[in-house]
Amino acid sequence: MTICELISNVSTIEDLLVWPTTCAYYFYLYVLFAIFGVTALSLYNIDKEKFLKSDLISCLGIASIATIITALPMTIIKNSSDIPMLQSDLFLYVLAVGVVFIGIWIFKD
After folding, report:
1. Cα 32 from chain centre
2. Per-domain residue ranges for the chain?
3. pLDDT (tens digit, 9 = 90+) per residue, 39-83?
4. How far apart are the C-alpha atoms of 109 and 9, rounded to whole Å?
5. Is residue 90 a contact partner of residue 24, using CB atoms and an 8 Å limit?
6. Which residue has the higher pLDDT, 41 or 3?
7. Are 62 and 108 in contact (CB under 8 A)?
8. Predicted TM-score of the model (pTM)
9. SS (H, E, C) the chain
10. Which of 85, 67, 66 is closest to 76 using CA atoms?
C-alpha cells in the first residue's frame, strides 16, 4: 500500500498537481485516456454530421496528437521532491500508442 502525502503539506501549485501521482500512480494515465476518448469521439461525431462517410482512423490519429501534446508538459512539471506529474514510463506508453494510431492514420491508403 502506498503512503499518500497529506494535502496539508502541499505548498506550491506544482506540489498540488503532482499530489495525485503520489497516491495513485496511474491517475494521470487515466486522465489522458479520457482526453483521448473524448477528443476522438467528439471529432468522429462532428465528422459524421458534416460528411456522409466519416473516418474513425483520422479521428484517432488527431486525438493521439492532442494527447501526446497534453502529456509532454505533464512530464516536465515536477514537485519539490522532484517527482514528475506523469512518470516517464507512462509517457512512453502514451507515446507508443499515439505513434501507432498516427502511423495507421498516415499509411491507411
Report:
1. 3
2. 26-106
3. 999 999 999 998 888 889 999 999 999 999 999 999 999 888 888
4. 54
5. no
6. 41
7. no
8. 0.86
9. CCCCCCHHHCCCHHHHHHHHHHHCCCHHHHHHHHHHHHHHHHHHHHHHHHCCCCCHHHHHHHHHHHHHHHHHHHHHCECCCCCECCCHHHHHHHHHHHHHHHHHHHCCC
10. 85
